[in-house]
Every structure is written in structure tokens, then in C-alpha cells.
């Protein structure tokens, strides 16, 4: 009998909660709108990049451009990384804002299970609508991003995005899961709190770190220590087979993954790091006589959840800018320095407004027997190292169909570059020979003197002897073909560079550069396009999230504003408090981001100098101060604007109206 009565009571209470849920949705439109916006943009971002990634396979990039597949893969990973943090934090913050409401429901008899079901239902409604909206926005978003890549030469002509159910369903499912997980976790925590305790602690965050968050934070701490340890030890560790950190062609990808691990660790530890950092930054304000600085300091210290929720997007924006831009600049500097160190030619002739003629080498050396010149022409080979029988299989999955970028060296290799030879002699690259980097030779299991099968650009299958194995270089293809073997199979091919030991009599309308002052690296253009593609969408989302969370937090503080005004504060003083608190939040995020950038840049520079350049040359440690300053300034402008505008609107109403 008692069980039946208990079930009836629970059912009646749950039915009673439905009008409460509807009223909550109406009353907290700003909070739910903020959660809806965060998830909508997150799903749009992931679905857009996923749709483009779905259209790529292998290395289908324009010649000389970075791998489109890899760029989009990292763009999708970066988008998902930022979206998960922002969406989970936004939904959890929206629940945390309702502590007083939840306490009142507990006081009138609502059970923890009913609280969880109530909040889960509200979150599910918002999340479903946002997931659908995000997928719809991705339909025009993916083609727009594809067109941007094509216009800048990072994607082949005709590349576009077609609607694909798989990436959109995956983005929607991920968004739903993250949103519900953030809401349910916060709801379970809130539902377990006793009503009296919840009402007493409504204004002060005493238990921000839950057991689940502590577990995640400890994992992040171990990851942080592991990354820091590797940054310190990696320079002196010998390279091993398959070591991505020591492979110049994979090192930038490995570094980006390590940077994201460090950023994740700091983000998970934010509730632990933010309060002492706020105390440190606001120590001079403790002696201030004005009310606004003191109130801003205490608000940031007592409302830790609000401070962390608003600081996290700013931290992500500044830290991602610092690490990605810093790492890109470090690798660009390393490539320039290594190219300068390995260039043996006195002059380099490159195409001007018109391509170089196909017979450039003959025309330059005609009548000048003492002039040593070496022409280099980019090409693509397929099936490097495949078995002879594999070339009869023309399927896309055949090993003989795997493309690889290569450079045809027509002339003396030593005239063009001074390469660090591991096996063999650069002078032996003539006749039916080729040279491979250490990574290519190790990957295909070939050694000096072995014969390697491959298909040339015109479809000819040939076998070339491995005459040189050189240490992998940042700005050089990992396959070098002898001009004797490859040039006859490149009809009409025009060289992209001619390396000379003396100034030519006829420049053929091309641009002649001195190797001592080579000018800008032509590959830097593609490097920054890749950086913009990877960082841009995620950074834009993080900046929008700053505005979103600031509006959500400010809209929830109308009662605080009423108390201040009833206590005698004028509108200017209240707005000053809000502005100072926004500045404090961004300053805290900027300090954490600077620490992350300093750690990752130190590790990246040490890795480049000791594992990639390895004595050829060195690059100094540089922090990307301009990028950090711009990111911090943008975050500060958005945060203060998003805090002041809704606060100003709230203060236009009489205090008694609240």
C-alpha cells in the first residue's frame, strides 16, 4: 500500500513539475537561448568540417600545397575539441544558474530523480532543436568553406561539399551526447544537495570540483606532467622507427596534438587554478577604497562557476591562437633556416610572370661550359616500392595507386643542395637512380643499392636503384629522381627552379635570387592557409562563445544589480563593477594561455633544434606576442561589450521591478 502511494505521489509530483518546466523555459529564455546557440554553432562547425573531410581521400591536394585531407582532419579535430568544451560548459553552467530554483523544488518535495528528469527533458528539447539547426546551417557552410579553399589554391578546382548524412548525423549525435552529459551531470549534483544547504550556498560556489571533475582533472594533470616531461626529454632522446616527433613531415601534426593535450589539461584544472590566480591578479585591489574593484574581486572569487565558464572560451581562444600560430611560425622559421643551410647554389632562378621554358637548362649553359646549373621540377609518382604485379591492378585501393610528391633533379645534385647523407653519395644520383629520405627508406623497407619500383607521371612503370638516403628535410620532397631517368617521361614539363653557381647571362624573364638572401619562402603561403583553415573556424566559435556565456551570466545577475542600487550605488558604479569583472576574467584566461604558449613553444623549439635540424642550424625561441595580444584584445572587447550591454538594459528598469 505504501509503495503504491509513493509511486502515485511521485507521478503526481512529476506531473506537477511539467508546468514548472514550461515556466522555467519561458523565464530563463536567455540561458536556454545561450545553450541553444552554443550547441547550434558547435554542430554546424563539426558537420561543416566533417562534410568536407568526407569528400577527400588520400593526397588529392594541388601540387605544392599541404595535404588537404590532413588539413581538414585537423580542422575537424580542432572544431570538435572546442565544441565539446564550450557546449558541455554552457549546459552545465545553465543548470548551475538554477540552484535557487532547484532548492525551492527540493523544499516543496521534489525528489532528486524528478529534478534530473526535469532538467534532462529541458536540455533534450533544446539540444534536439539545436542539433537540427546546426545540420541545416552546415548545408551552405560546407560549400562556402570549400570555395574558400579552392580560391586560395589549397584545394583542387571543382572541389566542393555535397550533403552527406554520415558527418551530419555524427555531429548531431556528438552534440546531443555532450549537451545531455553536461546537463545531467550538473543536474545529478544539484539534485543530491539538500534544500537548506542549496539555499544557503546559492550565492557562493563551495564545491565546484565534483568527483568526476577531479578524476578528469587528475588525468589532465598527469597528461600535463607527461607533456612537460617529454618536452624536456625529447631533445636528447634518440629517434626511433615510427617516431612522429622526429619525423619532419609529421612533427607539426604531433606537436599540434601535444599542444591540444596541454590545453585540455589546463581547461580541466581551471576550477582549481582560477581562484588562486584571481587572488594573485587582484591583490592590489584588496586595499582599494572604491567599491567597484572590491566587488569585482569578490564576485570573481565567490562565483567560481561563473568565472570559470566565462573564462574558458577566452582561454581557448587565446591559447589556441598562441600555440597554433607559434608552432606554425616556428616550423616556418625552421624551414627557412634549413633551406638556407642546405642550399649549395650561389643563385636560384625561379619563374617570374611567365613559366620557365622547358629547355631552360640548355639555354642557360649554352656557350658557358663553366657554368654549373641544376634544374628541379616537381612531379608525382605512384606505387613507390610496390611489387611488380601490383601495377597491373588499377583499383584505388591498390598499393600501386598511392601517390607521392617527388622532385626531378636534372643536373648535379651537389650544385643545388648540400644534403646530410646517411647512406650513399649525392654525386651518384644519375642514370636510373633515385634518392629517398630516411623516413621513406625506413617506411618502405629499402636500403642503399636496392631496386625500387614506381610509376612515373606519364604512366611508365620503371625500376630505379637507390643511390642516396638523406636525412628528411622540412622543405624538400622525400623522393628525388634522377633527371636521366625521369625527364624523358615529363614531356613539356617546366622547371620551377634552376640552381646556379654563377650569375647567368640571360635570365629568361625569370626572377634571380641570391641564396644568401632568398626572400620569402614560397611554401609559407600554404602553411598560413593551412593554419587559418585549422584555427579559423574553432577560433571564431570560441569568440562567439565568449559573448554567449557573458550574456548568460550577466542576464542572471539582475537581482544582484537591484541589491547594489538599493544600497546606494549609481548606474555608473554598477557598470564599472561589471566591466572590471569582465576584464579580470579575460586577464585570468590570458595568463593561463600565456603559460600554455610558453611551455608549448619551448618544447616545439627544442624539438625542432635537436630532433629535426639536428646540428644543421638552429632557430631561437619566439613567443607570438602580436598574435597573443590581438587575441587577448579581441576577447577583452567582446567580453566587456557582451557584459555591459545587457547590464545597461537591465539597469534601465526600476530596482523594484525585479
UniProtKB/TrEMBL annotation:
Keywords: Cell membrane, Membrane, Transmembrane, Transmembrane helix. Its main location: membrane. It holds the Pfam family FtsX. Residues 74-191, 538-653 form the ABC3 transporter permease C-terminal domain. It is found in: Cell membrane. It comes from the Bacteria. It is a multi-pass membrane protein. One of its GO terms (cellular component) is plasma membrane. InterPro entries: ABC3_permease_C (IPR003838), Macrolide_Exporter_MacB (IPR050250). The keyword Nucleotide-binding does not apply. GO terms for molecular function: transmembrane transporter activity. The chain crosses the membrane at residues 36-53, 73-95, 115-148, 168-191, 212-233, 253-274, 314-332, 526-553, 574-603, 623-645. Belongs to the ABC-4 integral membrane protein family. This is FtsX-like permease family protein. The lineage of its organism: Bacteria, Bacillati, Actinomycetota, Actinomycetes, Kitasatosporales.
Amino acid at each position: 500500500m505504501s509503495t503504491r502511494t509513493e509511486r502515485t505521489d511521485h507521478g503526481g509530483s512529476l506531473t506537477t513539475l511539467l508546468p514548472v518546466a514550461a515556466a522555467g523555459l519561458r523565464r530563463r529564455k536567455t540561458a536556454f537561448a545561450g545553450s541553444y546557440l552554443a550547441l547550434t554553432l558547435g554542430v554546424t562547425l563539426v558537420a561543416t568540417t566533417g562534410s568536407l573531410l568526407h569528400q577527400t581521400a588520400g593526397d588529392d591536394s594541388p601540387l605544392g600545397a599541404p595535404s588537404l585531407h590532413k588539413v581538414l582532419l585537423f580542422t575537424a579535430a580542432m572544431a570538435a575539441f572546442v565544441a565539446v568544451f564550450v557546449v558541455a560548459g554552457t549546459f552545465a553552467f545553465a543548470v548551475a544558474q538554477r540552484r535557487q530554483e532547484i532548492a525551492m523544488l527540493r523544499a516543496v518535495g521534489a525528489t532528486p530523480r524528478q529534478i534530473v528528469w526535469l532538467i534532462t527533458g529541458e536540455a533534450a528539447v533544446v539540444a534536439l532543436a539545436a542539433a537540427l539547426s546546426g545540420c541545416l546551417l552546415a548545408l551552405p557552410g560546407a560549400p562556402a568553406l570549400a570555395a574558400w579553399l579552392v580560391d586560395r589554391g589549397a584545394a583542387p578546382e571543382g572541389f566542393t561539399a555535397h550533403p552527406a548524412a554520415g558527418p551530419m548525423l555524427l555531429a548531431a549525435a556528438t552534440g546531443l551526447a555532450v549537451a545531455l552529459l553536461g546537463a545531467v551531470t550538473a543536474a545529478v549534483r544539484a539534485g543530491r544537495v539538500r534544500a537548506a544547504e542549496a539555499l544557503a550556498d546559492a550565492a557562493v560556489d563551495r564545491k565546484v570540483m565534483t568527483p568526476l571533475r577531479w578524476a578528469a582533472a587528475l588525468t589532465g594533470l598527469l597528461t600535463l606532467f607527461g607533456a612537460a616531461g617529454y618536452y624536456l626529454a625529447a631533445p636528447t632522446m634518440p629517434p626511433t622507427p615510427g617516431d612522429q616527433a622526429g619525423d619532419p613531415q609529421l612533427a607539426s601534426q604531433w606537436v599540434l596534438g601535444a599542444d591540444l593535450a596541454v590545453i585540455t589539461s589546463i581547461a580541466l584544472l581551471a576550477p582549481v587554478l582560477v581562484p588562486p590566480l584571481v587572488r594573485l591578479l587582484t591583490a592590489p585591489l584588496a586595499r582599494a577604497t572604491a567599491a567597484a574593484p572590491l566587488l569585482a574581486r569578490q564576485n570573481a572569487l565567490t562565483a567560481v562557476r561563473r568565472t570559470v565558464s566565462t573564462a574558458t572560451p577566452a582561454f581557448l581562444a587565446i591559447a589556441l591562437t598562441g600555440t597554433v600560430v607559434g608552432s606554425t611560425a616556428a616550423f616556418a622559421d625552421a624551414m627557412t633556416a634549413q633551406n638556407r643551410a642546405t642550399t649549395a647554389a650561389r643563385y636560384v632562378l625561379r619563374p617570374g610572370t611567365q613559366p620557365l621554358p622547358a629547355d631552360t637548362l640548355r639555354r642557360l649553359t649554352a656557350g658557358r661550359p663553366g657554368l654549373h646549373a641544376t634544374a628541379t621540377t616537381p612531379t608525382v609518382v605512384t606505387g613507390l616500392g610496390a611489387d611488380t604485379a601490383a601495377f597491373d591492378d588499377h583499383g584505388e585501393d591498390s598499393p600501386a595507386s598511392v601517390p607521392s610528391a617527388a622532385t626531378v633533379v636534372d643536373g648535379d645534385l651537389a650544385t643545388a643542395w648540400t644534403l646530410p647523407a646517411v647512406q650513399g653519395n649525392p654525386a651518384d644520383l644519375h642514370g636510373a637512380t633515385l634518392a629517398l629520405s630516411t623516413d621513406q627508406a625506413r617506411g618502405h623497407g629499402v636500403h642503399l643499392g636496392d631496386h625500387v619500383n614506381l610509376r612515373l607521371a606519364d604512366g611508365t612503370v620503371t625500376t630505379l636503384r637507390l643511390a642516396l638516403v638523406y636525412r628528411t628535410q622540412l622543405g624538400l620532397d622525400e623522393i628525388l629522381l634522377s633527371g636521366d631517368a625521369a625527364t624523358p617521361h615529363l614531356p613539356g614539363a617546366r622547371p620551377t627552379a634552376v640552381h646556379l653557381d654563377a650569375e647567368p647571362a640571360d635570365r629568361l624573364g625569370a626572377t634571380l635570387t641570391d641564396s644568401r638572401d632568398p626572400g620569402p619562402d614560397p611554401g609559407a603561403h600554404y602553411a598560413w592557409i593551412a593554419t587559418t583553415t585549422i584555427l579559423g573556424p574553432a577560433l571564431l566559435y570560441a569568440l562567439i562563445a565568449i559573448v554567449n556565456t557573458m550574456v548568460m551570466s550577466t542576464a542572471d545577475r539582475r537581482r544582484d544589480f537591484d541589491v547594489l542600487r538599493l544600497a546606494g550605488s549609481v548606474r555608473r558604479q554598477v557598470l564599472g563593477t561589471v566591466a572590471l569583472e569582465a576584464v579580470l576574467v579575460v586577464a585570468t584566461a590570458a595568463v593561463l594561455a600565456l603559460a600554455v604558449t610558453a611551455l608549448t613553444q619551448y618544447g616545439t623549439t627544442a624539438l625542432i633544434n635537436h630532433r629535426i635540424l639536428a646540428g644543421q642550424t638552429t632557430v631561437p625561441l619566439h613567443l607570438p606576442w602580436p598574435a597573443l595580444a590581438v587575441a587577448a584584445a579581441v576577447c577583452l572587447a567582446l567580453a566587456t561589450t557582451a557584459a555591459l550591454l545587457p547590464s545597461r538594459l537591465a539597469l534601465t528598469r526600476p530596482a523594484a521591478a525585479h
